[in-house]
Amino acid sequence: MTTTTEAPGAELGKARLRKEDARLITGQTNWTDNIKLPGMLHMAFLRSPFAHARITRVDVSGALSQPGVIAAFSGADFAGEQGSLPCAWPVTADIVIPAHPPMAVDEVRYVGEAIAVVVARDRYAAADALASIDVDYEPLPPVLDIRTALDDGAPKVHEAGNKSYEWVFASGDVDAAFRDAPVVVERTYRQQRLIPCAMEPRAVVAQWLDDQVTLWSATQIPHVLRFALSAFFGIPEQNVRVVAPDVGGGFGSKLQVTAEEVLAVLVGRRVGKAVKWTESRSEGNMTVHHGRDQWQRIRIAADRDGRIRGLDVDLLADMGAYLMLVTPGVPLLGAFMFPAIYKMDAYSFKCTGIFTTKMPTDAYRGAGRPEATFAIERIMDELAAEIGIEPLELRERNWIKHEEFPFTTIAGLTYDSGNYEAATAMAKELFDYDGLRREQQERNDRGDPVRLGIGISTFTEMCGLAPSRVLGSLSYGAGGWESASIRMLPTGKVEVVTGSSAHGQGHETAWSQIVADQLGVPFEDIRVLHGDTLVSPRGMDTYGSRSLAVGGLALVGACDKVVAKAKVIAAAMLEASPDDLEFSAGRFSVRGDPEASKTIQEVALATFAAHALPEGVEPSLDSDATYDPDNFSFPHGTHLCATEVDTETGFVKIRSYVAVDDVGVVVNPMIVEGQVHGGIAQGIAQALYEEGVYDDDGNLLTTTLADYLVPSAADLPSYVTGRNETQASNRLGVKGVGEAGTIASTPAVVNAIIDALRPLGVNDITMPCTPERVWRAVQSANGGAA
Amino acid sequence: MIPAKFEYVRPSSLDEAVSALAEGGDDAKVIAGGQSLMPLLRLRLAYPDLLVDLGGLEDLRGVTDIGGDLLIGARTTHYQLVHDPLIAEHCGLLAQAAGTVADPAVRHRGTLGGSLAHADPAGDLPAVVLALNGTMIVSGPAGQREIEAADFFVDYLTTALGPGEILTGIRVPKLGNDWGYRYEKFHRTAQAWAIVGVAALARRSNGQVAEARVGLTNMGPVPIRAAAVEAAAAGADANAAALTAAAAAAAEGTNPPADLHGAPDYRSHLARVLTGRALAAAAGV
Ligand SMILES: Cc1cc2nc3c(=O)[nH]c(=O)nc-3n(C[C@H](O)[C@H](O)[C@H](O)COP(=O)(O)OP(=O)(O)OC[C@H]3O[C@@H](n4cnc5c(N)ncnc54)[C@H](O)[C@@H]3O)c2cc1C
Fold this sequence. Notes:
The structure holds two protein chains of two kinds. By secondary structure, chain A is of the alpha+beta class. Helix content of chain A is 28%, strand content 24%. In chain A, strands 3-5-1-12-9-10-11 form a seven-stranded mixed beta sheet. Chain A has a five-stranded mixed beta sheet with strand order 7-15-14-13-8. In chain A, strands 18-26-27-28 form a four-stranded mixed beta sheet, with helices on both faces. In chain A, helix 14 runs parallel beside helix 15 (547-574), helix 15 (547-574) packs across helix 16 and helix 17 packs across helix 18. Chain B is α+β, with helices and mostly antiparallel strands. In chain B, strand 12 (196-205) and strand 13 form a beta hairpin. The chains are: A alpha+beta, B alpha+beta. At the A-B interface, helix 3 and helix 19 of A face helix 12 of B. The complex binds flavin-adenine dinucleotide.
């Protein structure tokens, strides 16, 4: 019954400047920290200086006598109402999910865990008064290494022990695949701990009026947060409004229900005033959930010609001290991605989730998929070296050919589309692959102290999270649909309400482009509303590269409904039958009589006046739609990286980087380019720069950006990007791009470093590949020779 | 930034500044560009009761040719050092090193005097001023005095500045055209501090290095001169092999720190490699 055009319209594919940027980059917008309310008070948290300790006494009375202080509370003061921060993903039936009070009551389990809160007239007074709170601790032994945390006699993080869960998956006969394989390569890789560093720190403001609370938070998930506040903290859902004003980045770190959000609500209720809290960067480094932190043992079995027989993966995943919103599920998002784009007979996967006395881990750009992609793309290079064939050639021998789509992988995913040959051919060309290989050989031949290496990553990922039934089968606590509404205003302008919650992605622009094409209205006439549960009551928010591939499709559904209804009204206006109307570029016209037509704006006005609506048609052109995908989407691409490695100092310079991505149909190429650039940068950051480091006592050493090195533009190469397009099997043909660059780039960079040094006998370097680590790897491969 | 409480004054003359500082005693601190002090205030690692802002003292800013030397006002910013024509002509090493400090925002605010007074062993400019044989000009309650760079850096974050003393300027001898220079900074990202830095000066004559001076950044609690290298390089042939050989002594007498970015042995190795490279560049090899 739909009459919308399926062909690419005028807006799709246009590199529109982003509508939202002026207010974002000039700082003129309502960042949460800019919000000031009458009588608003400020919170500061006293945080544990110990990785693990029993709290024997907390005395906040000293703080109460400090100037400007209104109230101070310990965890015990909220014991009756603070409950436990939720974990929405109990991945196994016997998973251990320890209680996680927003403020610790009798034991602290990581440095930075909140113990008490001061409420004062300004931030300075609140911060000053923290020093007047007395806490007695009995230190307990920290648990810092997941490789030994399950040993007999290891100190326990929780009463129930250090194991949270074990999750297994197997497909095909793995034993047989390995039993008589001519080649087996085994490696252990480290996914270091990463600290998401969104540009905007977390911030919250809570305001109660009567029994209704509004929480402004720099969050990615206003809808999930509203549900959580209601379901887990007993505030009736109809009385909770959550607003995510403009939010300055998340990368998964704001996909969380945090202690500070819950406490803002509870403390605000207790003191009867609006309260606010904004973290400092150092506080954020300590207490924003961290990412990655796994040990990966991976084994691959192959024939002599490189054909893969089987893959076996055994992960240890550091949960940190508690399970937060999706902590245990993150490594499992990678479970299905280890086989990547390759065909094989058998695959087995095991993941053990382990508690330590560190900040909990959770989703961080890519969430599970970068880890998997790293391990498989690294070991493909090792396998190629082992059997002596070109690493690209090895990949090609094993990957799914373009004519084989749709293809069901050994992990059970059905890849709908892709063309690995085309993406790789384009990447090789843009990269001058053969020329660089020649230069590499020349440098090796003359013993150049600066070696050249070429790194390959022929990655794919699953995104567009996610079909609700699949989430259900993985024991996830919610669905994966998205919602959208269209409000046709009387003057023909359009308000679009989306359930996804942009925090830098540019939805206001991309959504306008989609709606402009679907409804045939000008781009400028569209306003996109999001991030406030009063305005956008339904949604599953933004993460997992889902907004376009799920939310964008909900948008198309909502437009369909508007057009269908408008057509009935237009038919009445034109005294024609709806069946005789066609809709194109915003105009309903009678087939064969193009003069007889009405624009959708004219219909909108007529609907508003409602003077002559057809029998049974209600006066409104608004519509609501939800969309639940029936499959993931599978962006893929070929990334090639050339590094120059100074063997004398260990310094790695990225000389060139080519990224050819297939993200399906592109709505706005400039936004896609930005996502690819930023994504690659974040993956390079993991390869070369970033690591969250705890010392032997469990103190976080990387609390500032002088120690936690986030690269800037000055450290990164100019990317050469290309795009190959195969259409996803949804109506827009879109796949998603938010995480692709991050997933792809880490192994491309590390493979390039190893490729440069392999002739010297180096076959692994732990990430981040710091100059010191690179130098030491060269040293030990040289047998210690300088 | 949520620092502890402090009072703030912004004197308009040096005398006023000196007396404000003297009155404030141990709990008073000078603030210039704030680029080292403010991070400490933010982390509450420093909590002075009084900040004496030098921002009103225009005389302390800029570069003057005073004959054989340049006089650089303590408040001269890193950005000014990078762009000043006198610096470019007579001690380009300082401009080159200042250009490696942090990022444009920091370079526009941070000052030479602040860098030297702060005496962070990872700071780039102390080793440079040491290699340039600079002299600190200081005003305090007892009047003005001068301190040689070699005597100025006493310990980690500690200088020879006495209570109530303000660094007003730095005198550096002009270098002739026969001098070459190079600041080799080794760091992981463009904005990061030096893991090791080497400031090298070489005077070349007849295919040889007649005289060399090498200052090392972050090879101990204070910036140091690589005396053994200087001795070995003096009279050496101006070629890579000879200078690399001279640089082999770069870690002698150093006491490099250990931190997340490098262990002492790695730093010692870097000092040797970078010294060889810096000397070669300075000698035009
Ligand atoms: C992000 C960042 C990165 C940085 N990276 C580098 C780097 O790579 N290399 C580098 O060298 N530096 C770096 N710095 C430090 C920078 O160079 C500072 O500007 C400099 O160290 C201090 O100069 P200032 O004028 O800002 O001093 P302030 O911060 O104002 O003062 C620093 C100290 O010196 C004292 N002081 C200042 N001026 C005087 C004076 N005239 N007389 C007596 N005492 C005085 C103050 O009391 C204080 O103790 C970085 C700073 C930041 C914020």
